[in-house]
Amino acid sequence: MTTANSAAASGRCDTLIRNALIIDGSGAEPVAADVAVADGRIAAIGQLSGWQAEEVIDATGRVLSPGFIDVHTHDDTNVIRTPEMFPKLSQGVTTVVVGNCGISAAPVTLKGEPPDPMNLLGKSEAFHYPTFASYVEAIGAARPSINVAALVGHTALRSNHMDRLDRAASEQEIAGMRAQLREALEHGALGLSTGLAYGNAINAPTTEVLALAEPLAEFGAMYATHLRSEFADILEAMDEAFRIGKHSRVPVVISHLKCAGVENWGRSGEVLQALELAGKHQHVGCDCYPYTASSSTLDLKQVTDAYDIQVTWSDPHPEQGGKMLKQIAAEWQVDLHTAAGRLMPAGAVYHCMSDDDVNRILSHPATVVGSDGLPNDPLPHPRLWGAFPRVLGYYSREQKLFSLAAAVRKMTGLSAERFGLHERGLVREGYWADLVLFDADTVRDAASFTDPMQPAHGIDAVWVNGQLAYRGSDKKATGHRAGRFLARQPSAAAA
Questions:
Q1: Strand order in 147-150's β-sheet?
Q2: Are 46 and 32 a contacting pair, CB within 8 Å?
Q3: What is the tens place of the pLDDT at every residue in 11-50?
Q4: DSSP readout, 174-187?
Q5: What would the pLDDT profile of 245-298 be if each residue is shown by its tens digit?
Q6: Is omega for the bond preceding 117 within 30 degrees of 0, making it cis?
Q7: Looking at the whole model, is its pTM more than 0.85?
Q8: Residue-wise over 283-322: b if at least 16 C-beta within 10 A, else e?
C-alpha cells in the first residue's frame, strides 16, 4: 500500500475518511490509516491530519476496502433499465461483469422472444443493442450507480446468425459470429463467454467454439465458460475449456465452479486438482458463489427427487412460484418431470451442492467471488442481495474458512487482475475510488430463500468513482450515479 510519508502532509480533497482499518485488496494485513479522495481517485493514504475536505467521515472501528467486484452477473439489461442497482450497491458491489454463461444483451438482434436462457435477462423489449457499441453508449446514457464490464455471449451470437440452435454452426455462420465478436472486442468487451450446458448451445461442438475464440488473443481478451457439464462429466468439460483457452492463447475462467448433483458430492478435490494441473501450463481460474444452491431456468435434465427444487417463476402457471417442485407434482398428482414440463418456461433454485465442496472451492487460491444473481426473477436466489456480505460474515468471520484480508482479495484485487480492470480492486494512491466501509463484526447477508430481497447488514457506506452512492445508516442509495463502462485492459495473465 502506498501511503503519505509525513503526518504533517497537507492538501485538499473532496472526501477524507479518517481512522479506517484499511484492507487494501492485495491480501496484505490491515493497516490503520486515513484516505483522501479527490476527483474520483484516491489522492493520499496515511496519517492525513493536515488535510482539508468537503466531507469528513470518521471510520473508527470500521474496515475500508476496495468496492467489491461481482465477476459473474446477469445484470446486462438491468444496469440500463434499473440503473440504481440497489441489490448490488447495498452489499458493497461497485463493479459488475455482465455477459456470462453465453448470454449477453449485446450484440443481439432477436427474431422473436429471447431463447432460453437469454430470457433470464428479460423479455424481448429489453434487448435494444444490435451492436456492442450501442450497448456501451446506452450504459453511458443510463449512468448506472455501479461500473459495468461486459463479456459477449456465445448463445447470443448463435441466435443472431442461426435459423435454429439445435445444431452446429456452419463456417459462414461462424464467420458472422466472429465479425460481431471482433466489433465488441474493439469497443472494450472483456472476451467471450459460453454456456455449453444449455439446450441452445449444447449442440455446438468444441470446434465451433475453437474457431470463434481465435480473435481473442489479439485483443488481450479472455474466455469464461459455464461448463458443458457440472455433473458426472465435469472433468471432461474442464478439459474442453482448457483446450479452448490453449488454442486461443487466452486465460480461462470457469464460471461458478461446483460439484452438482448428489452423485458428484465429494469430488471437489479432484476437480481442483485438475484446475491446478492445467494452471501449470496456462492461465486458468474460477469463480464461485457462497451457497449450496444454484439457480437458473427449470431444466428437465436437472429434475430429480435427490434434492429440493424450488420453482421461482412459471410463465404458464405463475401461481406456483415459490413452491417446491415436489409439492406442485403432488398437488397435480403427476411425477416430477411431468410437473416440470407443464411449468416451463420457468425458473428454479436447485439445492444440489454439499457444504464441504463449496467450502473447498471457495477457499481455493484460484477462486474469486461472483454472485450469479438473477435480477429479473420475481423470487430470486438470495445471492442477488447477499453474496458478498455472506463471504465476509458467514464464511470468514463465523466459519473461519479464510482471513478477512483473504476474503476481500477474492472480491477485489484478484478479481480486477483476472478480468483486466485497470486501476480498480485496490486501495492504492492514484486508483479509482471505488470503496466500501463496513463493520467487520456485524457484516452479514440478510437475504434468505424465503425472503430474498433484503439489504445486507453492516455495510456503512459505498463510494463509486469517488461519489458516495450508498449510505448504510438509512439503507438507501444517495442518488449519485457515478458508474461507467469499463473497457478491458490486458492483464499480466493475458500477456
A1: 68-70, 93-98, 147-150
A2: no
A3: 999 999 999 999 999 999 999 999 999 999 999 999 999 9
A4: HHHHHHHHHHHHHT
A5: 999 999 999 999 999 999 999 999 999 999 999 999 999 999 999 999 999 999
A6: yes
A7: yes
A8: bbbbbbbbbbbbbbbbbeebbeeeeebbbbbbeebeebbe
Distances in Å between the alpha carbon of 244 and those of 183, 202, 290? 21, 15, 27
Taking the mean position of all CA atoms in its chain, how far away is CA 285? 14
Q: How far is CA 371 from CA 46, 100, 418, in A?
A: 33, 11, 16
CB under 8 Å to 84, separation ≥6 — which residues? 144, 145, 477, 481
Size of the chain, expressed as the number of residues it contains: 495
Residues β-bridged to residue 152? 192
- CA nearest 145: which of 206, 94, 92, 192? 94
Q: CA dist 490 to 153, 217, 367, 418, Å?
A: 19, 10, 20, 9
Helix, strand, coil distribution of the chain in percent, nearest 5: 30, 20, 45
Q: Could you give phi then psi for residue 349, rounded to 5 degrees? A: -105, 125
Cβ 445 vs Cβ 390: under 8 Å: yes
**What is the 8-class DSSP label of residue 67?**
P
Structure-block grid coordinates of residue 33: 490509516
Q: Which grid cell is 128? A: 435494444
Instruction: Give the H or E element holding residue 417.
Output: helix 413-418
Residue 8 has pLDDT above 80, yes or no: no
DSSP run (H or E) holding 336: helix 336-343
Distance CA 90, CA 93 (A): 7
